[in-house]
Each structure stands twice: as C-alpha cells, then as structure tokens.
Amino acid sequence: MRTTDTPAAAAPPDVPDDLLAEYAAMGAATLADHERWPALADADLDRVTAGRAHPAAPVWVHATGDRLDAGDLAALAARRQAHPAGDARAGSPGTGPAGPPDGPPSWVAALVARAHATVPRYRSAARAGTSGASTPLHALPTVTRADLVADLAAHVPVDVPLDRVLEGTSSGSTGAALRVPLHPRWVAADLLLLHDLVAAAGGTWFADPDRLGLLNLVDQRTAFTYVSAMSAFPRPAGTPVPLMARVNLDASAWRRPGDRERWLADVDPQVVSTSALPLLHLLELAGAGLELHPVAVVNGATHVTPAVRAAVRATWGAPLVDLYGLRETGPVAAALDDGDHVVVDRRVHVEVLDASGAPVPDGARGEVVVTVDENPYLPLLRYRTGDHAALRRDARGTVLVGLEGRAPVRFADAAGRWRPSVDATQVLQAADLLAWHLHQDATGGVRLTAVPAHPGAADRAARAVREWLGRPVDLRVADRSATGHGKPHRFSTALDPATRTP
Predict the structure, then answer these.
(1) Which InterPro entries match (predicted)?
(2) In angstroms, what CA-CA distances link 246 with 40, 63, 64, 229?
(3) pLDDT per residue over 312-322, tens digit each?
(4) What residues contact 456, with CB distance under 8 A and at least 6 apart?
(5) Where in the chain is the domain with CATH 3.30.300.30?
(6) Which of 233, 330, 415, 421 has the fewest Cβ atoms within 10 Å of its own Cβ atom?
(7) CATH 3.40.50.12780 residue ranges in the chain?
(8) Distance CA 189, CA 183 (A)
(9) Fold entry, domain 410-493
(10) pTM for the whole structure
(11) pLDDT, tens digit, for every residue of 256-311?
C-alpha cells in the first residue's frame, strides 16, 4: 500500500535540535519492567517485550508502566464493584449523595474542609481568616493555571505520601509547561472510565490478546513513544493483559519506509485515542489502503467537527467519543454523539462563571470552572479552565452546551508542507518562553509575540521557529502581563487548513 507522506531514512531519527534533548531514545529509562508493572506475571511482561520487538515497530523513545500493585488493583476493582459501569455520561457522581440540583454535590463540602486542613494554600487562608473548613464553595477564590505554575507545592496536600508520584506534563494555555503529580490509581481510573465510555457509545471493548488494546496516537516532529500494559483493564481471570502503545505518525519516527503501515495493520488497535489532526492523518492513511478495525475512536485535547465524526463512521463504522478534560483535572465531560458534553460520573463538579468570577445563569455562556477530587496529589477547588460553554441540567446530569475548547492549528512551511502547532509548542517551551502567540498571515508570513523568561529567550525561540518553518519570523517581545489567567489563543492562521489559501 502507498503512503501519504515522505518516509523516513533507514537509520533511527536523531533528536531535531538541542532544545529537544529529552526526546533522545531511551534517554530517561531507569526502571526494570517488573518495577514498571509490579502486579503482572512474567508471561504478561514477556508480552510487553515482544510488543517492543515487533519487526516494523517505530523507534521507541521511552519506557513506562502503570506502576499498579496488587493493592491498587484490588482498590480499583472494589470501586468498580461499588459503582458498576452504566451510562458513563451520567453527571451525578456515584460516590455519594448528589446534593441540591443547582448546587455542588455533598462531597464538595468535605473536600473544602479537608483542603483547609491539609493543602498549604487553604491552610494559609484559614490562618489568615479569609476562608475556612465551612466556607461555601462559591465563596472561595478561583485557582488559575498561573497559580499552579508559580507554586505547585501550595496545592499538594501535606498528608499524602509522595513515594508513588508519577509525573505528567501539560503544555497548557499560557505556554509555560506544568508538571502535574499523578497517582497510579488515578491514571488507571481514567482507563476504566474510557472503557465505560466506549461501552456507552456502543463499542465492545474486551481483552483480545491478538490485537493492541489501545493506541494513543500523535502526529508531530518529536514525541514520547512507548509500549505499555494495561494492568487494570477489565478481563476474566487468566486472560492475558492487553497492551497499549503511544505512537507518532510522523514519518521520521519510523525506521523504514512502509513500517508505519505494516505495524498499524498488524497490531490492528481496538481503540484509537488521539486528537483532531492525527485522526485526520489516520483517515488519510485508511483512504490510501490501510485496513484497521477500531471498535471506537476517542478524541481529546482539541475540537472535533461533525464532518470528522461522520468520516470515522463511514471509514470504520465506529463511534467517536469526544472527551473533554485537562491534564490538571483529568476527564471532565464527554460527548458520545453530535450532541453536547455531559459531565462524567466522577467526583467532578462544574460551574460556569463570567469574567469577574461571578456565576452566570444556566444557559448563559461563561468560563468552565472545575472542582475535582480524584487525584490525591492535586485536589482542585474552582479551577479555571479557560474554556467556555453554557450550563444545562437535564435527565443526563450536568451538560456543557456549546463547549469551546482548543482548536487545532496547522502552519504552512516554506516547502508547502503542513506543520502541526504542537511542534511549535515543544520548541517554544524549551526556549523558555512564558507565553506566546504565533500567527501566520494570508501570505504565509509569520509573527511571533513572545513573553520570555529571561533575556535571550525570545531570540532563541524566533530562531527555532524560523528553522522549523523555513520562513522569516517577525519577533515582538511582550511583558508578563500578556499571560493573564484565561486561555489565550497561542496559535492562529489566516490560511484555510484544507486549501492553504486565505
């Protein structure tokens, strides 16, 4: 079968420049497999080894595991038994009384009290008398991403042992990268939620040892790629653990021409989790002859259009789950059809506020603000997402109407090739920018407005963009006030994403 872009050379790709040294293949691998998956039997660990050694596999950049032990698996099973999978779209948490229909659920008051006893930010507020254990949620100040970037430790409870912290990263709205502490059980709970959402959308997702269970797909210049095992995946006793992989569609991530298509066809992933631009690329590959049979596609991180959803149905006959959330909060809401996003069945409470922080009436648009008590390392009270929607309550629960989140942006380089904005995010963060706005005008000209962390960072960033696109860059330096607390549009273009014309 033919490919739709230029294949890579035979040798493994080099890291593109010194700003991205962390993507050197296996440069950070330190643990043995039995430490990455302490609950798995040797036979399952052998499956991971075999998955890595596939003859058409891409260059694996990283090695990672879920770190779940037997106690974690028992706790996750007990949680699932106490709150069995049903309609995963239902908005009222299954972990306690829902509370009044127009107010927070009952668990929120307990979270507020616990935060004032254990979270440094709120312990300080209690000592200062500005808020306390009995303060209503609506009377608390909101939390912004800038707050977490400036002092993450102030939001981590002091009574939680930190010996099991996993690290997640988020490029975020302002451009400053945020490292988020994650707990293994919380990450695994996301997989169980995903399993429930696929079932609610009509997909049948079971442990099939002959197929890759989950494919996390990106399409960018550099990315962390790896094979992993899903220890917590629901399956009958004695069934081999399903594997998952994170893979980069970019041709440079593969060793030989055609390996990408051979590997994808051979592992035939059951569920594909991705975002809009990689999904469009995968649909192009399918149109060129790549045969896949996903039971569901999950879109996250960026907006998905009805046309893309229809293309998924037409190509694979599979449902598309549009999952909305942030790295800091975890999953917030999901749309299983062309309708609106329903807040997920977890300890997640959503408000919609105006620019001043005041609540707006149901049906009026405003900023989505999330209170969440799922990750023990980062409980959040009134976290401003920077995304906008209107709130409605109906039989499904809490509904986000007209959710306006992150839109994918592509830039045209000097050779006429599309380049995804995530490539720019990597180099601009690595160049020590606090925030930026990168714009391409109708003639292809590029303007970078940069908020540098230190002198020289803006010039370094401009050079990186110039090398990336092969175009001159008009650099404008702004001050820190440009970061704000909302979600500015970091990327924009005057070129149509389909025709490259204005």
Answers:
(1) AMP-dep_synth/lig_dom, ANL_N_sf, CapK_Type1_Caps_Biosynth
(2) 20, 10, 10, 11
(3) 999 999 999 99
(4) none
(5) 410-493
(6) 415
(7) 72-185+326-404
(8) 10
(9) GMP Synthetase; Chain A, domain 3 (3.30.300)
(10) 0.76
(11) 999 999 999 999 999 999 987 788 889 989 999 999 999 999 998 666 777 788 88
